[in-house]
Amino acid sequence: MSVDEHQPEILAIDAGGTLTDTIVIDSDGGFTVGKAQTTPENEAEGFRDSIDDGLGYWDVSPDDTFPSLAAGIYSGTAMLNRLLEQEGEVGGIIVTAGQEDYLRTERARQTYTNYSYSDRLHSVTHQHTEPFIPKDLIRGVRERIDPLGREAIPLYEEEVRTAVDELLDEDINYLIFNFIYSYANDTHEQRAKEIAQEVMDERGKEVPLYLASEIQPVRGDFMRLNTVIAEAYAAEPSREQLHGVMDTCEDLGAEFELRVMAGHGGTISYSSERLASTLISGPIGGVIGADYVARHLDIDNLVCTDIGGTSFDLSLITDSSYSVDPEPTISRYLLNQSMVELNSIGAGTGSHVKIDPNSNRMEIGPESAGDQIGVCNVEGDVQQPTITDCDLLLGILNPDYFLGGDLELDKDAAKAAIEDQIASKLGVDAYDAAEGAVDLMESRLQNQVKAAVLGKGYSPVNYSLISYGGGGPVHAAQYVEDLHFQDVLVPAWAAAFSAFGCACGDYEYRYEATIDLPVGPDLEDEEKMDVAETLNEQWATLKEDIVEEFERSGYDAEDVTLDPEVRMQYQGQLNTLEVSAPTANITEPEELDQLVENFEEHYAKVYARSAASPELGYTITRAVGVGQVPIEKPQIPDVSLQDEEPPEAAAKGTREVYWNGDWQDASIWEMTELAAGNVIDGLSIIESPATTFVVPPNFTADLDSHRIFHLTQEN
């Protein structure tokens, strides 16, 4: 095959904790998927191996492909790993006097976030997270802005000068300023920045300066500080990884500017000043890809499920929209940086299987083998068996076809580890132990799916479900069994679906600011226009910041369109909701009425109309600006339907699989040889170099014209 035959247009990369996935999409929606082990020390190496693997299936070279690519989108783990492993760069912090113990006292919620409900009830189990910045690198200076932005106590400038001097003596790598209520009035932080620059000029020593009021001007000083620390501690040092990937692309002839998936669901330039928004990118890409597919297939309600090597990530699309969390938790740290709402548990294909020595019960995760995969990986150094080891032992995985045969898996090693560490302690054989581990994990996943849907007040019968990630097709049928979803979708490119989703994201920047704007229940038209004027001014300011970001990438202000949004709540209630405004420049009272009506409608969908309290009025807590420019997006495959009977070329014979306590013959099929319209009956295993798709005995899988399998449970 030649490059001309495929006309590659879009490249997307997802460097996960275990494997690096790439997908190259041509102008007709055709795709090729590459996989390679992630190389955490230099993600560009894993990317290059993965792209070589993917393009190899088209029999084309990267040198011939990259010059024709219109876009390249990346999601990686370097920043998140720096947070998880606390291996970022240490700097100094200057705060309002009296707040020097921010990071040691935290907020109560941060000490138990991500805990089980039973552990949340017992304070003895609550643990303070380890501070990123030690106490001796934090200084307090006297100053105070009140909640309305008025100066209550002037800035003690000499204290700032002394604090900067002392911290520079500690050889800090950067300096952060985070003053109380600086989002309402940034004059003290700006003056402190000027003083710090004066001190650095006098000493001939420069370090980057970060102002909380510039990076995240929203309420919540502790979470705001965490967000700024994430930027300085983890995001900034990780730029080197992104530059390494961009350099690799340029060496291969690429002319595009690399973009990175951001937590809010859009993509931003790899050279953006604010990279902390890309901390969680791969799982977000999956949700955006699912939303893209759902819109193409006219699906309003969709459960998005992603099984990777380390975790199971779940998100809901309801009434064609996903939720945005304004205060997400990342690695047990609270941030006030908006992110697509995700629920995650530590249960992936690389999760360790172990026996609790106290209860003698089997446990799954949350620890994971990561890029080492499992004991079966002869090139790795894993001692604890994983779910992948179990799947291999049960005959579900083909030891000679993992990553297309590029990575050798040792079935005997997996069996020995499971016998020694699991089966012998439970008094069962290795196969029953392996199947028990897989059943336990799939049961946990099913409970997570049910809880997410029922918790919204819906039932699975109101939703379809999509399964993706390298491990999604392996386990999907078991965690949807008997839940009666409207449809269960498994894309043929499930292994690289999160990468595909990154390519589906808009090129956009999201900026927001706290405004705390009351909207009374019975405002006169003149009062409505006073509210509108404040909103218009804030949206205009946000657009200026957004345009500045795009101008660095060569776009003009005229290229940028602004989607104005707000976070809003009923007066007296605690939870805010994000709603779109009818225009970025409100000129009529009726347009403000429309904004309120949008909130009322969204509130009724998320909660219930009976909980509404419009008689008290509303509060607009944040103004949000989302700026976009036009970009290329991938085509969804659309091919002609063939017969239900699969072609002979797809048949690979049978393989014994340990299923429900017995050995059974499973039909083996090559996924890339199956044609649209083919129907596969269980028990079958559909293999590709990138993933394995299991069709149980009581299921069928129909491949549609978009190369998406529809998994159906019989009876």
TrEMBL record:
Residues 11-199 form the Hydantoinase/oxoprolinase N-terminal domain. GO terms for molecular function: 5-oxoprolinase (ATP-hydrolyzing) activity. SUPFAM superfamilies: Actin-like ATPase domain. Pfam families: Hydant_A_C, Hydant_A_N, Hydantoinase_A. Residues 524-712 form the Acetophenone carboxylase-like C-terminal domain. GO terms for cellular component: cytosol. InterPro entries: ACX-like_C, ATPase_NBD, Hydant_A_N, Hydantoinase_A, Oxoprolinase-like. Residues 224-509 form the Hydantoinase A/oxoprolinase domain. One of its GO terms (biological process) is glutathione metabolic process. PANTHER family: 5-OXOPROLINASE RELATED, HYPOTHETICAL 5-OXOPROLINASE (EUROFUNG)-RELATED. This is Hydantoinase/oxoprolinase.
